[in-house]
Amino acid sequence: MKCAFPTLLLSLLSPLALLAQPAEWGVTPTNAAGTLLGTVTVGGQAAQAGDWVGAFDEGGTCAGAVEVILNDGASFISLPIYGDDATTAGVDEGMAAGEAFPLRLWRAATGDILFHPDPEEPAAFGGWTATNGAPMPGFDDAYTVYDFGYDWASVTIDCPPPVVCLDGSVYNLSATPDDGGWSGPGTMAGFASWFFDPAVAGLGTHTLTYTSADGTESTCTVNVVETLAPFLSLPLGWCQGDGPLALDSLAYPPGGTWTGDGVFNTAGGAVFDASVLTPGTVALTYTVDGPCGGVATAGLSVYPSPEPPTLTPLNGLLYAGNVAEGDSLAWLIDFENTGDPTYFPYTDSIFYFPSWGDTYTVQVINEYGCTAQSSSVFVDNTIGLDNIAGNEPLRLWLDEEGRLQASAELVSVRWFDALGRALDGPTGPGPWLVHARAADGRSVRRIFAGR
Length: 451
Known about the structure:
The protein has 451 residues and is mainly β. The chain has 2 helices and 41 strands.
């Protein structure tokens, strides 16, 4: 987009009210003037707001000075250059016909005075002409570039790391020279320095820009990512006989690495095997790699498991042996040998009247809650079940009213408690043992837990 220079020219041909340019740039307007139009650059970059351009005669008198005009990223000048007033003999107000004039630029940001094209070999333009303030021939193109040599300062910036954590530390921002300022998401000025706060910037990739006093810009990018602090949800303890503990599902975020005594990395993931350790407390560590990862460590107690008990048939009863003092036990009964055992509310080491056709297992529990099981024992009804070939087993059950029912007519029913004492019927909390005999000679023992 081009500037509307005629309007600008009309405003700039009037006597100037000088702003902040150096005092020696004072201009004495006269009735003889010619205007220079052009585009001003400094070291190849557009001049900045507040910069001034001045024209000087061969005697060093400032014959014209104006502030640059910024428009659409470019900087322009419409510079009236005044001639000498013939009525004031002995006073040099400006240019004589045909006199050469150099151009200088005053940098508002730094106070430097620059020369065209450079300070080593400043050039002077010949052919000043009084044109009643109109653009002078040869100087009437607003897009003629007048570049002022400038040795841009080498700017060094100290940025945050390329990747930082959202809840990470606030970073100190610094630059050399330190006469400028920072801009961009998360940047903020402190008392005597600048800072970058990842939490203020937010997630994503951000561009931070440092602009020195002379307008030099330097940038860097910072990627703010979510913090992945590990979180563990280990059990309080693990028994030596409980088998491997799968670890990967017990940590967040996924993808980390487990280390510690008893830890093994398998094709299915990391596992903890307490059986290879002695009882005590072991430290397990989970590490998430990456700039925003972390390490979490938790203690896991290794508890001793009891020795497996023995289960022995003895004179029509079952005896649970090898149970350490202080350990408790529980019985599991697979009624009718279906493969689905259930816990039975009986804790004595002797099961006095096990029922025929069922499978028994005993489990011991130590003070740590660790368990071990015996081998299973099937109680064979060699007397009551097989004495009549081809007959189905005699079956007993309790109906909804708690009354004993049988799959055949019974001729004998006897009730016993868990210690083998005879009862008149299903009295007390149970369990009860029923010994029943049918009219055809079949017999059966059945345990009921009570109601």
